[in-house]
Amino acid sequence: MEKTNELTYNEKRLLAVLKPLKDAEMKKQYYQQTIATSLSGNNLPIISALNSLKDILSVLEEKKNIALNPIRNAVNMLESGSDEKSGFSLKRLSLARPSVKYLAIIMDTSEEAVVQYAKLLDSRGYCKLIAEKTVAYACTEEGAKYAKEGLPERRLYDSFENSIALKDLQANPSAKLGIGWLRKKGWVTIKDGIATKVGDVPLGPDEIALKDLSVKSAGTEELLKRKLITEDEITEYFIEITKEGEDLVEKGLDLRIETSTLTAEQIRTGEWTKLKLRNYNVQTPPKRIFAGKKHPYQQLIDEMRGILISMGFTEMYGNVIQSSFWNFDALFQPQDHPAREMQDTFFLDMKAELPPYYKAIRDIHEHGGDTSSTGWGGKWSEEKAKQCVLRTHTTGLSIQYLKDHPHDPLKVFCIGRVYRREAIDPTHTPEFEQLEGIVMDSDVSFRHLMGFLKEFYQRMGFTNVRFRPAYFPYTEPSVEPEVYVDGLGWVELGGAGIFREEVTAPWGVKYPVLAWGLGISRVAMLKMGLKDLRQLYRSDVDWIRSVPMNRNEIKATACGDTDERVANQKNGEE
Amino acid sequence: MAVITLPYKYLEELTGVDKDTIIERLPMIAADIERYEDDHFDVEFFPDRPDMYSPEGVARAMRGFLNIETGLKRYDVKPSGIRFTTDPKLKDIRPFLASAVIRGLNFTSESIQSIMGLQEALHWAIGRGRSKVAIGIHDLDKVKAPFRYIASEKSRKFVPLDFDREMSMDEILKEHPKGVSYAKLVEKFERYPLIVDSEDNVLSFPPIINGELTKVTTETKNILLDCTGTDEKAVRIAANIICAALAEAGGQIESVEVDGVTMPNMEPVERTVSVSECNKLLGFSLNAEEMCENLRRMRFDAEPVGDPKTTDKVRVLAPCYRNDIMHDWDIFEDVAIAYGFDNLVAELPNTFTIGKEHPYQKNLGLVRKIMTGLGFMEMMPFTLSNDRVMYQNMRRPKCADALYVLHPISEEQTMFRTDILPLMMETLQTNQHRELPQRLFSAGDVVHGRETYQTVSAVSMHSAADFSEIYAIVDAFMHELGLEYTAEVSDDEAFLKGRRADIIVNGKKVGVFGEIHPEVITAFDMDQPVSAFEFDLRVLYPEKIE
Question: B447 contacts in A (CB within 8 Å)?
């Protein structure tokens, strides 16, 4: 990267002004030597400076240089003499080493700004910023009056011709302070009440000093003693361009104004082609902003929905309030099953009417109905079946769907929240999501169920799936799928089976119904590496902000084969 | 769940193979190994197989599964001549009794532990916490037959197990630890069940506690078993499981006459099943003989009816201790287990169906798209809430049709949410120290009366959150939903007066938005301005969708 790129427009501009000023100083020396003979001494530095600046100005004008205005200001100041008046006398100022004050005026900016630009240039070696502690003098109120009107002794002195009666002199308003000084300075002799001038008295050093406070002179001490002026120590800054700085300017600075924001106007007119666009530091990261996004858990749920829909499943949705009839009885859950007690299930103060043909369910429970089942025996209670609950699973929706579609080949699924009466802790919440899928067709079998499970889990990124016998009240045979997760080993991930005939027969379903359920909050915890289930429902905003929408890398760690593949690729590269 | 302790040495002795083989294969017969200890391991068995709740039962099953000893295990039952009578007054209290005698046992403290473990597991799995079945095991030699199962006066006194003084049955319910735990099963009755011997010595107060008199010790050789309960079938199966386990441990089962009925009945249960139905269900192609071989490994007796290669009928004898064989498919599952789930080849069927999103979910997806597009981040708060969050903090009156649960588990979850906005305020509360602005939304179920439907709610919290901001959001949201709406002055007290509006579609209020009332903000312990809206998604469905 070129070094100048690190300089901003303002710093370059300062450098561009320093260079012609130094050139002018060189020319000034030349003028002084060549025209010294024809000019009087006092004005020589000013005339020669003016001439050299004017020379340079004409060059800058041709080039339309950025230093044009400041140099023009300098010329104007010299011509009008205002540099003298404002205390920037070129007599004591070298153009090769201008003060910050001077630069601020000709560059039409503040001293602070000039110091700031110079500091950076200094740190790059393009100029030297020199701090000089100097003493400055300023008139007191009294001093300011005398600077205008003259010292009281001078005014007294000028008030009479050769001599004056002391009595008359004392009537002069300046007499009170002035007479003493007249005597002290020995400007008059006083004899027999008559004051007589000693002769012509030139301006004393104190009077000269009062006229020009910019430098310390012989009379300065006297003025301080008389408290007509004050002395303050001030730091004055001067800037001296270095050889490197001059080289840089000579090489040509890109002095176009840097633009940070393009305007429509600039784009439309093509002006942008002339602009110098500010370069950004690509290493400085931006402040992070946060995307509006789905909850990571919802994203996972939608991923699963997508998989199932792509596998030909129709989605179900249903009421969270279910009768015990649909939630339990229709699923051949015996009425004295522990899950049906109030410590496990949220019961509601609500009864539901039983559907027509509910007696088929009663018969199944009591003696197995028309199936080869013995049933649970005992007496089935209608009242118990009418009791409403917050659904403990979504299987009640599946069976209602089957009731309405007893003959068609079908694949349906549902992902919904279910409710269990459990206290909240890191691994339990009273509500959580469950995935439920059923497949019904004339020729489906237990091996097909395993096929579906395997396919689904593999699409979820769990490539290693195995099956173990299990027990669920409404399926027979039942199976527990397990997936292999690195670092955890075999993890039980849901339950499955074929709906018992006691479940399907009452609704005239003649074909096997493959069914599986999956607690997907568990999958979410595995996929997102969560230790606390509550994080899904009482989410930390920062956590959601931090989880990338693309979770591919999480998938890669969650399944062995992908890891292997990644490893192989790496080996291949090496 | 029933977690059973299995001592390695005893199990190896009973099974006849080393423990590693057992541990490797046991999960494939339906069990979850919970933990391994130095001298035993703990295994969870499913509630449909209470016959495996003892080392003896596990060994019996594993010997079949590992092909060491297959087919039905028959238990020889000799008559003991002991009689038992039951009191008709027990009819509405605890009417059923099963009993048996087992002789010639050599108890060690370990085997006593094991039989107590089985008893407790059966109380849970079959007994439903002793209500359906309670089991008593007695030292037969301490008492004298015949025995009587009676409905006793509550004042009857005896020394209960592990106590050294006499207590009345009422006192036992109040003071004995077991009495306190199970009092609810009997306290409603006028009389309590009691088992006494011919000399009126108390054996047991079922289902609460045995008497100290008949306590089983390492000295005990002969056992009297009683199973009482409210379900005859369950009472009998529990007795069979205990008898079979004690017979496996070396005992001789003897029958007891209960009101003239000989018990226990250790005869197998016969069922004839179809080979093709089994094959169809499992996706197998076994012939009758192959199916029988698998069943024998699950300790059934199974014979093809007719030609073993071609017949479709198999006659199965199910062991008397199996509680789960209710239906032919229960037998088919055992065929699959014997075959080995790990040997099954998974296969996809060629059922052709077309997948389809539910319209509700489709719309929720659309809502998520719009809201995330507007820069909002989704939250998924609980759907259960309480009056304080839902109404009190929100300055809103209680909903007349709010749904409360009957037995809440905590004060935090007493009802189903009727709106989502209060949950969003709660979410902001827990996240208030995270970087602002926070723009959050949630879409999902609410319940009013019996109806579940969906709403969406969004909140924006930052120093400049105001009515104009949320109005613009609502306007964009309604535009993207393609709904014409008007805004009208609202009286919803959750919002500041003069800075709140109802969303009206077709003359009906379908939502509300505005600046949240400062009192609501402070009620949630916050201090930043919040603007918010909630919108009823039912307006998207002209007709109710099933």
Answer: 320-321
Chosen for mutation from A455, A476, A500, A514 (greatest number of chain B CBs closer than 10 Å) is A476
Asked if residue B470 lies in contact with residue B437, where contact means CB atoms within 8 angstroms, the answer is: no
C-beta of residue B520 within 8 angstroms of C-beta of residue B391: no
pLDDT of residue A574: 35
- For A488, how many CA atoms within 13 A lie in the half-sphere containing its CB? 19
**What is the structure's pLDDT at A86?**
57
> What does the alpha-carbon distance between residue A107 and residue B279 come to, in Å, rounded to a whole number?
99
In tens, the pLDDT along B115-166 reads 999 999 999 989 988 999 999 999 999 999 899 999 999 999 999 998 889 9
* Interval B246-270: pLDDT, tens: 999 899 999 999 999 999 999 999 9
Q: Which residue's structure tokens are 């541990």?
A: B23
Contacts 24+ apart (CB under 8 A), A333-336: A333/A473, A333/A474, A334/A365, A334/A376, A334/A473, A335/A365, A335/A376, A335/A378, A335/A380, A335/A381, A335/A384, A335/A385, A336/A378, A336/B128, A336/B131, A336/B132
pTM, 2 dp: 0.76
Strands B495-505 and B486-489, how do they pair?
antiparallel
Contact A316, A412 (CB under 8 A): yes
b/e per residue A470-499 (b: at least 16 CB within 10 A): bbbbbbbbbbbbbbbbeeeeeeebbbbbbb
Structure tokens at B125: 């799995």
Residues in chain B: 546
Closest CA–CA distance from residue A345 to any residue of chain B (Å): 9
pLDDT at A488 over 90: no
Q: Using the 8-state DSSP alphabet, how is residue B166 labeled?
A: -
Under 8 Å CB pairs connecting chains A and B tally to 250
**For the packed helices B232-248 and B109-125, what is the interaxial angle rounded to 10 degrees?**
160
Give me the helix-helix angle, A68-80 and A44-63, nearest 10°. Answer: 150
Distance CA B138, CA B201 (A): 12
Q: Is B71 exposed, middle or buried (0-12, 13-18, 19+ CB in 10 A)?
A: middle
H or E segment to which residue A560 belongs: helix A560-573
